[in-house]
C-alpha cells in the first residue's frame, strides 16, 4: 500500500462545516457569526458541494433557502456538536493506492483546553449514516488536528513543535516517534518543523494554518510582522529565518511570499484576538481569504493571488470568527475528490 496525504489545492468533492448554535460559545454573537457561515456556504457551493452538520438542521435549512442557496449543492446532517471548528475534528483524507481513505484522529479540545466529546464523534456519526458513501474510515488513537499540519501532496509535512509536541496531546511520543507515527498513518516522507511563531489569543498552541501555508510550486505564504513595537515581531522574524533555511525535496529554497500584518484586534475585555491572513481555504477554482475590515485586506488578497494565479481570490469578512479565536480555515475541512458517493 502507498499512502499519500494530498495537498489542499488538489481536486475536492466538498467542504465540511459545523453550524454555530445556541449551545456553543457562539450564543452571545450568533446574529453576527451566522452571516459568515452563510457566506461560506454561498461561495463554496459555487465550486463544489457543502456538508453541514448541526444539532437543528431545519433552522439551518430555512436560513439557506431564504438566502436562495442552491440546496442541490448542500447536504445537511443532524449531528450534535460542541463547537464549529471542523478543521480540527473533521476527517483527514489520505489516498491509499490513489483511493480515498478517511482518518478519524482523536480531537481533545486542543490539548484538553475545551470540551470536545461531541465533536470527537462527528466523523464516526457521519460515516455510520453513509454520508461518505463507501469510503472507508479508520479511527486513530493519535491526537491530531487538521489545522496543525500542511501537506504539499508529495510527502512533505510542515508543522510547529509547539503544537504537535504539546504535553497534552501525545505525551507518550517524542519527536522521532511522532514523525514515525505520521509516516505510518499519513505516508509522510519528511516533516519540516517550525520552532518559532505564534499569535496572541490563539488557543491551538500555534497551528501552522495561522502562520505559514504550503502552496503550489514549492511556495510558502507566511505571516510577517513589520512593526518592531508589536509583541509578535521577534518571534515572527525568527520564524521567517527558519522558513528561509528550509529546503524543497530538490534541495532548493522555497519561494516565500509574505502576508501583511493586520492591525491589532481586541475583544471587549481588551484581550488580543488572533487575526491572520494565513487562515485561507483552497477550493476548486478559488481561494477564500479571511478579511477583517483592515487596510491590509487588499494586500493580503494580492499576496494569495501570487501563490494561486489560476484561481479566483475571494475575500470573506471574518471579524466575527476571530471573536472565538479562529478564522476561515479553522471552520472548514475539505473532502478530496472521490470521498462522496
Report on this model:
This is Agmatine deiminase. GO terms for molecular function: agmatine deiminase activity; protein-arginine deiminase activity. Keywords: Hydrolase. There is one protein chain. The two termini are 23 Å apart. The protein has helices at residues 30-45, 57-66, 86-89, 109-112, 122-128, 161-164, 175-186, 233-245, 297-307, and strands at residues 3-4, 12-18, 49-54, 74-78, 92-96, 99-106, 137-143, 150-151, 156-160, 190-194, 212-215, 219-223, 255-259, 265-266, 272-273, 281-283, 286-291, 312-317, 333-336. The model has no long low-confidence stretch (mean pLDDT 97). The protein has a four-stranded mixed beta sheet, with helices on both faces. The protein has a four-stranded mixed beta sheet with strand order 4-3-2-19. It contains nine helices and 19 strands. The radius of gyration is 19 Å and the shape is globular. The relative contact order is 0.17. It has a single domain (3-336), classed as 5-stranded Propeller (L-arginine/glycine Amidinotransferase, Chain A), CATH 3.75.10.10. With 341 residues, the protein is of the alpha/beta class. Strand 2 (12-18), helix 1 and strand 3 form a beta-alpha-beta unit.
Amino acid at each position: 500500500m502507498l499512502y499519500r496525504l494530498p495537498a489542499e489545492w488538489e481536486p475536492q468533492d466538498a467542504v465540511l462545516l459545523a453550524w454555530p448554535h445556541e449551545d456553543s460559545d457562539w450564543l452571545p454573537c450568533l446574529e453576527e457569526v451566522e452571516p459568515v457561515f452563510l457566506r461560506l456556504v454561498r461561495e463554496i457551493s459555487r465550486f463544489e458541494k457543502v456538508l453541514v452538520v448541526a444539532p437543528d438542521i431545519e433552522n439551518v435549512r430555512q436560513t439557506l433557502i431564504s438566502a436562495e442557496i442552491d440546496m442541490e449543492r448542500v447536504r445537511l446532517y443532524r449531528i450534535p456538536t460542541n463547537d464549529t471548528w471542523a478543521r480540527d475534528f473533521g476527517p483527514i483524507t489520505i489516498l491509499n493506492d490513489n483511493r480515498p481513505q478517511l482518518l478519524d484522529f482523536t480531537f481533545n479540545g486542543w490539548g484538553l483546553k475545551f470540551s470536545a466529546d461531541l465533536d470527537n464523534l462527528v466523523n464516526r456519526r457521519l460515516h455510520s449514516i453513509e454520508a461518505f458513501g463507501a469510503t472507508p474510515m479508520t479511527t486513530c488513537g493519535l491526537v491530531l488536528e487538521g489545522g496543525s499540519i500542511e501537506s504539499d501532496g508529495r510527502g512533505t509535512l510542515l508543522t510547529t513543535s509547539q503544537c504537535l509536541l504539546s504535553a497534552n496531546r501525545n505525551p507518550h511520543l517524542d519527536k522521532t516517534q511522532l514523525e514515525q507515527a505520521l509516516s505510518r498513518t499519513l505516508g509522510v516522507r519528511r516533516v519540516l518543523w517550525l520552532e518559532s511563531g505564534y499569535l496572541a489569543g490563539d488557543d491551538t498552541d500555534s497551528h501552522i494554518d495561522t502562520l505559514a501555508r504550503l502552496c503550489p510550486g514549492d511556495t510558502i505564504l507566511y505571516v510577517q510582522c513589520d512593526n518592531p513595537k508589536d509583541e509578535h515581531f521577534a518571534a515572527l522574524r525568527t520564524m521567517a529565518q527558519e522558513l528561509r533555511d528550509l529546503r524543497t525535496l530538490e534541495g532548493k529554497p522555497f519561494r516565500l511570499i509574505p502576508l501583511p500584518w493586520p492591525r491589532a484586534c481586541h475583544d471587549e475585555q481588551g484581550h488580543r484576538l488572533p487575526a491572520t491572513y494565513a487562515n485561507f481555504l483552497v477550493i476548486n477554482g478559488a481561494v477564500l481569504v479571511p478579511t477583517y475590515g483592515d487596510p491590509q485586506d487588499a494586500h493580503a488578497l494580492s499576496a494569495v493571488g501570487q501563490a494561486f494565479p489560476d484561481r479566483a481570490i475571494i475575500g470573506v469578512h471574518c471579524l466575527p470568527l476571530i471573536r472565538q479565536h479562529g478564522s476561515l480555515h479553522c471552520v472548514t475541512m475539505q473532502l478530496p475528490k472521490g470521498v462522496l458517493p
